[in-house]
Amino acid sequence: MQKNVRLTLIILFALSLSVSPAAADSYDGSASSLKVERAVMCKGVDQRVPLGIGNVFAGDAGKIYCFTKITGAAQDTVVTHKWFLNGDLKSSVDLLVESNSWRTWSFKQIGPADVGDGMVEIVTKEGVVLTTIIFFIQ
Question: Is a pLDDT exceeding 80 seen at residue 3?
Answer without folding.
Answer: no
